[in-house]
Amino acid sequence: MSSTELIDLAANQSITITSPSYPGNYQNNLDIEWFIQTAEDFRILLSFHAFNTESGNDYLVVGNGRDSTDSSTWVILGSGSSLPPDTLSTGNAMWLRFTSDGVITKSGFSLSARSVESLGKSTLNEVKH
Ligand SMILES: [Ca+2]
């Protein structure tokens, strides 16, 4: 099963993203993409609450921007049971892609995506004051 979800995150809004059927096991043969964007001057902060995929075969990949085929944008390559670190986007867009192979499933993942004011901008404001 493959699907694409477009998420418009309002400034300061927070949402939860999970693998399908979480906290039950996800399905085999998934290819799911989420494209998140938020207001200009805001960034997206991902915080992981749970992570458990079949190590070496089922992956969550996260990257900056809007092009999930550009491997230079990758910031997280998650597989297995280690919780990925909190990750802040470099701009106002971020993508996630979850793929599973044909055998063995796990409980998957749960994370929150929050729109936060750009750190660069608040630093500038602090300097001005
Ligand atoms: Ca698998």
Automatic annotation (TrEMBL):
<dbReference type="InterPro" id="IPR035914">
    <property type="entry name" value="Sperma_CUB_dom_sf"/>
</dbReference>
<protein>
    <recommendedName>
        <fullName>CUB domain-containing protein</fullName>
    </recommendedName>
</protein>
<dbReference type="InterPro" id="IPR000859">
    <property type="entry name" value="CUB_dom"/>
</dbReference>
<keyword id="KW-1015">Disulfide bond</keyword>
<keyword id="KW-0677">Repeat</keyword>
<dbReference type="Pfam" id="PF00431">
    <property type="entry name" value="CUB"/>
</dbReference>
<feature type="domain" description="CUB">
    <location>
        <begin position="1"/>
        <end position="116"/>
    </location>
</feature>
